[in-house]
Amino acid sequence: MEKIDQAFLKSFMKAWIQFHRAPHQLKKRADDCLKPSAFILLSILHGEEEPKMLSVSELSKILQVTSPTVTQLVTQLENNNLVERKINPSDRRAILVKLTEQGIQLVDQQRNKFLDSMKGLIEYLGVDESKKLTELMNRTVQYFQQQRS
């Protein structure tokens, strides 16, 4: 294993922390009252092609948090008119969560802002450097996944 210089390690850690904070500094948006986890929940319900209706237990599995945590998030989002609860037509005892029209619009707006931001980053770095960064980010994710196993 290669010996790592302490000064470089400190520099690397500082850059990592700044990199981790960078997306949060972009949050100049109307939904600043929402926690990141609430926005992730909205994005999951939005889906790629069309909005989904999911149960609290399904959402808790996807988000890897407890059902009570999801219930709190859903209540907050429902109070902001971003989601609504519906009775599951196939099991009337179960409740499904779905986006409201306002929730769909919010996710669409934020996804467009994020895509614009990523396009700007690619233009800033250039395509070749962006490809290298993508490769390094993927390798970083693999490293942390291996550390968890």
TrEMBL record:
Report domain HTH marR-type positions: 1-142
Q: Name one Pfam family in it.
A: MarR_2
UniProt keyword list: DNA-binding, Transcription, Transcription regulation
**What SUPFAM superfamilies does UniProt report for this protein, alphabetically?**
Winged helix' DNA-binding domain
Q: Which InterPro entries match?
A: ArsR-like_HTH, HTH_MarR-typ, WH-like_DNA-bd_sf, WH_DNA-bd_sf
List the Gene3D superfamilies. Answer: Winged helix-like DNA-binding domain superfamily/Winged helix DNA-binding domain
**Molecular-function annotations in GO:** DNA binding; DNA-binding transcription factor activity
* Top-level lineage group: Bacteria
Recorded hits in PANTHER family, A to Z, give: TRANSCRIPTIONAL REGULATOR, MARR, TRANSCRIPTIONAL REPRESSOR OF EMRAB OPERON
- How is this protein named in the record? DNA-binding transcriptional regulator, MarR family
Native source species: Seinonella peptonophila
